[in-house]
Amino acid sequence: MVKKIIVKPVLSDVEISQKEGDFFNIDKLDIINYDCDVYRLLDGVEKLLLSFRKKVIPKKLCDDAFIALESTAKKKHNNRGAAAGKLDVEKLPAFVKKVVSRQKFRGHYIGKSGRVRKDHISNYVSSGIIGYYDKPDRNIFRKTKKKYPVMPCRMTKFTREHPDKWDKSVNLIKKVDKLFKKLVPKSYAKQLARARETPDFIIENTAFSTATINYDYQTALHKDKGDFDNGFGNLIVLEKSEVLGGLKYIGGYTAFPQYGVAVDIRHRDFLAMDVHQWHCNTSLEGEGRLSVVCYLRSGMLNCKL
User: Fold this and answer.
1) Which are the contacts of 22, defined by CB distance < 8 A and separation ≥ 6?
2) Quick one: 112 and 39 in the same domain?
3) pLDDT single digits (tens) 269-282
């Protein structure tokens, strides 16, 4: 039997929103490591917060995807905003000489040229995207000095330049799609219908356009932005120790602090989660945690042919 859990807020909407960009530990969090569906109680109505299942993905799919994605997932990027935490100059690369127009999570900066750059920068973290994206690659257009296209959607660099690795990743994403359909059918149906409106930018007939990959990255408190409002995020974790051996990491729980719960998702597990609720990760001891979050970018509608 799958356990059903009802949770109520332990922090008000105002209290939790004031902690955006903060990091959390496991204090006062109930850790879930068993099959369950968790519902948040909102004005007497139950709303699904997460659906978690243990060991439902074949090991080979996870192992192959880890090998395919590890090197790309380790690359650092500076566009995660609140999820990367409050702006910290010690977490910025050497080419940033000075931060100007500083905001809570981002800031303009002076680079090697000595001039203020037009783009924002946030803390560098090991996080990237695969699949398709609904914004142009600014690096390409900065180099060529071409104008951004009217239709901004594109294939990501990883998907375009590493077809063999992408193929191994897609096998896992297809399995995630099936689990999403089984466990959260109503949200899945809405997301799939929306995805099919832009079939050129969807991953292999799934309900997903994009996956975010993270490596040993403790996310700060945030809500996901840019994804389909009526959909769900789908999370799997790939562990280096399960693929290549070595010590297991400790921690890295996926937490929903407003509701006092966190999930210990490991190799071969599956988690469907409402990414429009406040969430984060707890601290991680050790190394080798590669997470993959599959979702649909809402901006893909702008690329409807």
Assistant:
1) 85, 86, 220, 221, 280
2) no
3) 999 999 999 999 99
